[in-house]
Amino acid sequence: MPYIRTRLSAPLTAEQELSLKSKLGKAVEDLPSKTEKWLMAEFCDNCRLWFAGDNSSPAAMVEVALFGKAPAAAYGKMTADLTAILAEELGIAPDRVYVKYEETPYWGWNGSNF
Q1: Which of 3, 26, 88, 113 could form a disulfide with 65 if both were Cys (CB 3.0 to 4.6 A apart)?
Q2: Phi and psi of 16, rounded to 5°?
């Protein structure tokens, strides 16, 4: 049950959003037992993001929430994949991206909790 919210300082076309959604679906497999089948993705473009006191270059904030836990190595691989995806798709330099992970023991869906 992963959820990925991506806030971008740049605009996002429909084609870019579809490509990002597909690539995030693949990247979520870095986390044990997570697949695109359960992925919810949110994209917020044109956000006013300042990174290190500067907004002259594109920046992004990616938040990954998941039911359960994952090993540190999996998070490391996913961070590398997420920053590479944003660089490739949108030209956002990896050093202008923060990635935050949140693990939760409770996750609700379809009227009940897992």
Answers
A1: 3
A2: -65, -40
CB atoms within 10 A of CB 114: 11
d(CA 39, CA 18): 14
Inter-axis angle of helices 14-27 and 72-90, nearest 10: 160
User: Are 31 and 66 within 8 A, CB to CB?
Assistant: yes
Contact indicator for 59, 90 with CB cutoff of 8 Å: no
Cβ burial, residue 16 (10 Å; 0-12/13-18/19+): middle
64 with 3: CB under 8 angstroms?
yes
Q: Could you report the per-residue pLDDT of 11-40, keeping only the tens digit for each?
A: 999 999 999 999 999 999 999 999 999 999
Q: Decide: helix, strand or coil at residue 35.
A: coil
Structural contact between residues 67 and 40, judged by C-beta atoms closer than 8 angstroms: no
The pLDDT tens digits for 66-104 are 999 999 999 999 999 999 999 999 999 999 999 999 999
